[in-house]
Design the sequence.
């Protein structure tokens, strides 16, 4: 046995799909407009379905006041063989890498907002308080995600108040119908609804 090849890898690399480039979408949106930012997150989720590159979820980290996208991501669980490669985790991680700063509240563009095409699952919800974002804007509801067949995990019914207690504002059901339509299109497409 070669000891070198038996060693586990010490690097984790997660890649976004090739179609998700700076030319793929308009990367600016109307300042202070949650609907405008959410439209872009929903378009990311839609393109992930169209290109069959992952689950029907898109997320952004943005400076809402400036109308500036800091990071954009989609669900990459299957493509990357990584259960934590949810759109929200990917977007938060990309933003942190961009600034070389784990605390997004300590960046020059702060306060930053996480815009997600659906309410966060249990894992993504757990990541939000430590990310440094000060606002979360959600599209489709947990109920709509679960109606497609995804397992969103256990989440307190007080999650919005819990985040507010940490200084993180939450806006729910922003362009909900448009976001839910992408989930329904995914279900009709026959693509994988992955669960353990």
Sequence:
């Amino acid at each position: 046995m070669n000891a070198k090849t038996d060693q586990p890898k010490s690097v984790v690399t997660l890649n976004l799909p090739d179609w998700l480039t700076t030319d793929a979408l308009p990367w600016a949106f109307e300042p202070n407009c949650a609907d405008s930012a959410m439209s872009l997150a929903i378009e990311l989720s839609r393109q992930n379905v169209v290109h069959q590159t992952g689950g029907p979820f898109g997320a952004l980290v943005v400076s809402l006041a400036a109308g500036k996208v800091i990071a954009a991501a989609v669900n990459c669980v299957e493509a990357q063989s990584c259960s934590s490669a949810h759109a929200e985790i990917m977007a938060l991680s990309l933003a942190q890498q961009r600034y070389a700063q784990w605390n997004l509240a300590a960046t020059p563009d702060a306060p930053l907002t996480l815009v997600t095409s659906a309410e966060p699952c249990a894992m993504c919800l757990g990541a939000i308080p430590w990310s440094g974002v000060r606002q979360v804007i959600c599209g489709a509801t947990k109920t709509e995600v679960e109606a497609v067949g995804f397992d969103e995990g256990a989440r307190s019914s007080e999650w919005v108040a819990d985040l507010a207690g940490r200084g993180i504002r939450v806006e729910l059901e922003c362009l909900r119908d448009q976001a839910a339509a992408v989930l329904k299109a995914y279900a009709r497409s026959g693509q994988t609804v992955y669960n353990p």
In short: The beta strands are 58-63, 68-74, 113-118, 135-140, 169-171. The mean pLDDT is 93. The longest helix spans residues 34-50. The first strand starts at residue 58 and ends at 63.
